[in-house]
Amino acid sequence: MARASFGIDKIIVERxxxxxxxxxxxxxxKPVSVxxxxxxxxxxxxxxxxxxxxxxxxxxxxxxxxxxxxFKGQVWVTITCEDTGSMDLDNAAKSVLDLAVREGVIExxxxxxxxxxxxxxxxxxxxxxxxxxxxxxxxxAAA
Length: 143
Known about the structure:
Blueprint: E1 24-28, E2 38-39, E3 47-48, H1 50-65, E4 75-82, H2 90-102, E5 114-122, E6 127-133, H3 136-139
Parallel strand pairs: 4-5
Antiparallel strand pairs: 1-6, 2-3, 4-6
């Protein structure tokens, strides 16, 4: 009887990241309104305001502490903000999405990557960010 030959030399290994299959969520400080993100001095380009720079510093610490996966490809994003103050809800999305891109959690915040954004006021302190892999089956389209 012939013996089958099994060995590690017969295995093909692809070295590529496995995309996250589960949602990721974390809590961030209350986002800075897009109206307060930048300053501009005469003769200078726009720059991050001190309020936005402080928010980035705190948000980066919280995001990194949550150990987010690196989402490759298309995602859904949900941002739930603390229901206080006078900020327009749509102004909160810019700083949170820019942070996710800056830290490599999502590849880009353009239409080819972020397929849906859900914004809500909620019973949270600061802001809750949730990112899920995009799935055709959840949209009702053919998988």
